[in-house]
Amino acid sequence: MQPERFRSLLTSHGPFGSVYFDDSHDTEDAGAQLDLKWRALREQLEQQGAGSALTDIIGQAIVEHRPAVGRGGWAVVASADGVLVNEHLIRPAGPMARVSQLPYIVPVVEHGEEHPTYVVAAVDHAGGDFMVHRGGEVSSETVDGEGYPVHKASSAESAGYGDPQRTTDGARQKNIREVAERLTTLVDDVDPAVIFVVGEVQSRSDFVKDLPDRVASRVVQLSVGARHSGFDDAQLHHEIDREFQRRRVAAIDQAAQQFQAGSGSGLATEGLAGVTAALRAGAVETLIIGDIGDATVVAGDDLATVAPNENVLSELGTAPTQVLRADEALPMLAVSTGAALVRTDERIAPADGVGAVLRYALR
After folding, report:
1. Are residues 123 and 21 in the same domain?
2. d(CA 71, CA 111)
3. Does 171 score more than 80 pLDDT?
């Protein structure tokens, strides 16, 4: 998961309340169950010292959230500054409530929906419809090609008017070219991570062939229907979710391979001592989060001085003023240095539950 998603947390001030719960709406009494869950979570927050202002902010976010369809979870992270994370999780998490000086984001890294900017392009030989999904908002536009006709007339209708097939083919190619040119401009403007192309097979194929390589390389073709005959929105979103889940798994695979390859070359490290040293140096490319448990780290006034214990911090010439949970401090320091975050599974078991792929080897 890319660090930009959490950058707003860096400028907020604690204490933070981090709440996770099963938001599945697959029973008739789901609404009543949510009320009971929030009461229990609020009690946990209050027991940990949360004031009424913080619990009210979190409670309002939970009351106003849009419940999941079927199975899923929900995450709310807030401070006195307001709600900072308020989103659906693809799998249930918790119930869990924390009050601490730093936000707890590991469940979002593991189960959050990471949908970067993407475009859905529904195309045929007459034109195209573009839907740009960016930052939770959707904008759309339509390109109607000027080429006509796009369907060959019968021989009786076209007598004496030249070759109808050549005329039709030229019009179809002209329209496809216009749509491809507009999409290329759009891609250069908004820089989407993925372009999902919808339409009947021949339209999709002709369209992708007309795209420059830098655009075509981002295309994922979906067989969910045609432009004007319609397609199932639920199926479309299911296929989009599947693609992003595939990319999430691929990112974990890549991190695992890089971690294993880098362990012998100095381009990977593990354990609290090694990872905190790499984070202090700004050398972490990807932070790999495993089962850290209740481990803690220490820091001075600045989170950038984080160390595994007081002795190491003293050697750095800094007096320890904070004892922090490692599963909160390390992800937030990684975000501040621009490192990606990966929640590992059984493929990697780093020492102390934490590892890192490095940008460069440390001395």
Report:
1. no
2. 12
3. no
**Structure-model confidence comparison of residues 152 and 64, the more confident one:** 64
Structure confidence by residue, pLDDT tens digits, 94-121:
899 999 999 999 999 999 877 789 999 9
237-275 pLDDT, tens digit per residue, is 889 988 988 888 888 899 999 999 998 889 999 999 999
Residues 153 and 224 in one domain: yes
State the CATH number of the domain containing residue 191: 3.30.420.60
Backbone angles phi, psi at 41, to 5 degrees: -65, -40
In tens, the pLDDT along 175-189 reads 899 999 999 999 999
CA quadruple 279, 281, 284, 287: dihedral, nearest 10: 0
Q: Which residues of 2-37 are buried (b: 16+ CB within 10 A; e: fewer)?
A: ebebbeebeeeeebbbbbbbbbbeeeeeeeebbeeb
Sign of CA dihedral 48, 51, 52, 54: negative
Q: Which of 97-106, 160-169, 205-214 bottoms out in mean pLDDT, i.e. has the lowest?
A: 160-169
Q: Is residue 246 part of a domain?
A: no
Q: What domain count does the chain have? A: 3
> Considering the chain, what percentage of its residues have pLDDT values greater than 70?
90
